[in-house]
């Protein structure tokens, strides 16, 4: 009987793992079937339109706007990868490092680059596999360990030992992990529309609504097909994400201009530009949940209440993982793309958080 009691926890862990991976692959198959039907419907309506993709040889002018900062590159010694970033503000000022989400790139921080350069050296990075940053071919090169190490190495290469770290969506996930693994590197942590990673993994298994909202996580496990579906109809899916009533920026938000939208399409229409970003998702299930999970850095979590991809309840639960000062602000009628949707409010909230004295929880 004692031996059975000893084996029971391991058995339950094995069964839970088996159930989890069964769920992943079953849902993956379901998502693939739905997208295949969408493809067949599109082909039925007009095959020529489905595969139409105008050539985009030159970037839109907004990507070289001097008011946003200077385009720079840094090569990391250990990985050999070259990273692209846009920097605003004088060298020597405290570093503010901005990490974008999917499907975005440095340009999603255009409002923050202009706003915070007066007091910070603001650096908006193209993450590994995005934009002008190098994109390793193999899926294994996009594991969380690699993404965390990238940020640590970039900080060293820029000549800083610590920064104000701001992340949105996938950048938020990475920002949480940096604060957990290298707390000495983060003066203050600001995350936009992404809960603590452990909250996400626990919540998604217990709430079918969030499982449905995260269906793209499962669809992205399939090789090459997600990249193909993103590109058909001249990147209609990408346009839909930012502009549709269901997932896009809200009616009262700062809408993307035609040139802004063209900037996104230009970046992701380059050869192989989607594989790196989607490979982030292809590694995520093998990396979560985390073994170490407490955050000891003063933290601000900003959340758009109308986020189509993340349930707002996860934001509330996140505070149990932060041992230091924690503030949550939920913006009504704001979308997932919060720093672009409501830039004035977001910038004001960030300024307030940066200037106030924060004391550690007892």
From TrEMBL:
GO terms for molecular function: epoxide hydrolase activity. Residues 94-339 form the AB hydrolase-1 domain. Pfam families: Abhydrolase_1 (PF00561). InterPro entries: AB_hydrolase_1 (IPR000073), AB_hydrolase_fold (IPR029058), Epox_hydrolase-like (IPR000639). The keyword ATP-binding does not apply. The chain crosses the membrane at residues 20-43. Keywords: Hydrolase, Membrane, Transmembrane, Transmembrane helix. PANTHER family: EPOXIDE HYDROLASE. Belongs to the AB hydrolase superfamily. Epoxide hydrolase family. This is BTB domain containing 8. It comes from Callithrix jacchus (White-tufted-ear marmoset). The gene is BTBD8.
């Amino acid at each position: 009987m004692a031996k059975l009691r000893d084996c029971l926890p391991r058995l339950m862990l094995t069964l839970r793992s088996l159930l989890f991976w069964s769920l992943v692959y079953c849902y993956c198959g379901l998502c693939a079937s739905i997208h295949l039907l969408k493809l067949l419907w599109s082909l039925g309506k007009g095959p020529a339109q489905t595969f139409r993709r105008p050539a985009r040889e030159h970037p839109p002018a907004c990507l070289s706007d001097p008011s946003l900062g200077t385009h720079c590159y840094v090569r990391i010694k250990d990985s050999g990868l070259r990273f692209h970033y846009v920097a605003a503000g004088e060298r020597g000022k405290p570093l503010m490092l901005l990490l974008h989400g999917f499907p975005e790139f440095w340009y999603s921080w255009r409002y923050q680059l202009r706003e915070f350069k007066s007091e910070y050296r603001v650096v908006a990075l193209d993450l590994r596999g995005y934009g002008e940053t190098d994109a390793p071919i193999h899926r294994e090169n996009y594991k969380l360990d690699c993404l965390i190490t990238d940020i640590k190495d970039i900080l060293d290469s820029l000549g800083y030992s610590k920064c104000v770290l701001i992340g949105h969506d996938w950048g938020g996930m990475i920002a949480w992990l940096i604060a957990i693994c290298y707390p000495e590197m983060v003066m203050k942590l600001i995350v936009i529309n992404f809960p603590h990673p452990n909250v996400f993994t626990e919540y998604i298994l217990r709430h079918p609504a969030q499982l449905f909202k995260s269906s793209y996580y499962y669809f992205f496990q399939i090789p090459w097909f997600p990249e193909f579906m993103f590109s058909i109809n001249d990147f209609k899916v990408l346009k839909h994400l930012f502009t549709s009533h269901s997932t896009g920026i809200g009616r009262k938000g700062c809408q993307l201009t035609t040139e802004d939208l063209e900037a996104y399409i230009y970046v992701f229409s380059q050869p192989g530009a989607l594989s790196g970003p989607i490979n982030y998702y292809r590694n995520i299930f093998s990396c979560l949940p985390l073994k170490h999970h407490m955050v000891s850095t003063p933290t601000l979590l900003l959340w758009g209440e109308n986020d189509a991809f993340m349930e707002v309840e996860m934001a509330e639960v996140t505070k149990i993982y932060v041992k230091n000062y924690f503030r949550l602000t939920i913006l009504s009628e704001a979308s997932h793309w919060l720093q672009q949707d409501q830039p004035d409010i977001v910038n004001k909230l960030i300024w307030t958080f940066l200037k106030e004295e924060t004391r550690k929880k007892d």
